[in-house]
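Hi R.,

Here are the chain sequences for the assembly we discussed:
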Amino acid sequence: MRELVDRIRVEGRHVGGGIVKLDSFLNHQVDPELTRRIGEEFQRRFEEAGVSAVTRVVTAEASGIAVALSTAMAFGAKLIFARKSQSRVMTGTYFVAEAISRTRGIRSDLMIDRRFLTEADQILIVDDFLATGSTLLALCQLVAESGATLAGIGCVVEKPQEEGRAVLREFSAPVITLAKVEFENEELTVYE
Amino acid sequence: MRELVDRIRVEGRHVGGGIVKLDSFLNHQVDPELTRRIGEEFQRRFEEAGVSAVTRVVTAEASGIAVALSTAMAFGAKLIFARKSQSRVMTGTYFVAEAISRTRGIRSDLMIDRRFLTEADQILIVDDFLATGSTLLALCQLVAESGATLAGIGCVVEKPQEEGRAVLREFSAPVITLAKVEFENEELTVYE
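And here is the predicted structure of the full complex:
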């Protein structure tokens, strides 16, 4: 997605250790118009790949919520964001899978209420980054456990050097990313 | 907002201790079309209250992000979601304020990067619930510290019995909520 590549080139920063900071428009401050166009682009690209009848878009709190919402809007689907920690509001029964956060250095459980995923669902998983694939793998496991069909996986930015795409291969779903970022020392290379 | 009141009456559940569960459309599973209309309703209601030139909508991760994004879309403003815990991506300098989560029973710091709030900004704070007001108070303190103008506070659901509105009075900004929920034993009363 040309607009996104240009934006990362101008505003993205490699802050060391392979961590790319896009907090001015993607995951702290958010540009709603770009977010809307990202959702429309996912809808267009997945339709090209034969994925159109999506019933639910699934993401993990918190960074994925904005792009997952705009994607759900574009598909006319519902959004579910998996919760990361138990709260007093969570009184039901849940699908649970463990993810390891690269940027926070901690393990956490991702949880989705069993009422919201059924065997009739066509699920699109959407997140901001495809890096090591740990969070996405946990989301794929939640979907598999529910018996729903995993129709595709969409991430805004891919870091091919961290090889998350290989981790997701077993799920046989199309993986679409809108920009790729590689780094060598302080240098970022960004492409579609 | 009539549609929201009706939805809470059908799907809302009081799970004890004053905790109202709206996870089928608001803060776990999310209805994108309702979320879009909530954003448009906030824009209309705040404009009636004399608030129109909003530059940034501020919320806290994670439950507020969806409604804050749709509100930012309706205003043509940017969205900022305050982060709750430090990650390796957070390398800048931050405005910080402490909030106590009612539903999680923990204290946490809310953080916003100093680059994204300036004295020229007109800020609308948006969140899912106005209960005790602890999270909103922390967001107001972040905005005050930045020197930006707090133009208003919008919450989807208010629980008047928890008196959060009184906590926010010192900031002299209009507080608009779209539905009110009261409870006595297991009985919920919902009104505009």
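The helical segments of chain B are 2-11, 32-48, 65-75, 134-146, 164-167. Chain B has one domain: 34-179.

Let me know if anything looks off.

Best,
T.
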